[in-house]
Amino acid sequence: MDEQSQIHNIIDNRGEEHELMLIITTISSIMTFKRIKKLEQYRKKLKGSFKPY
After folding, report:
1. Which of 1, 2, 51, 52 qualifies as a cystine partner to 13, CB 3.0-4.6 A?
2. Collapsing DSSP states into helix, strand and coil, what is residue 52?
3. What is the reported pLDDT for 25?
4. What separation in angstroms does the CA of 32 have from each of 6, 29, 36, 41, 51?
5. What gap in Å lies between CA 30 and CA 5, rounded to an integer?
6. Is the pTM of this model over 0.70?
C-alpha cells in the first residue's frame, strides 16, 4: 500500500471515536422517544461510513 491509501484508510475508519458517536446518537434517539431529524441524519451517516476492524 502506498502512503496515500494508508492515510485514507485511517481517516475513513475513525475507530473507537466513530463507534462511540454512533452509540451516543442511537441512545439519544431512544431516550428522547422521538426522532430528531438532524440527529437521525448524523446517525445514518455514521452508520453508513463505519468499517469494523
Report:
1. 51
2. coil
3. 77
4. 39, 6, 8, 15, 27
5. 37
6. no
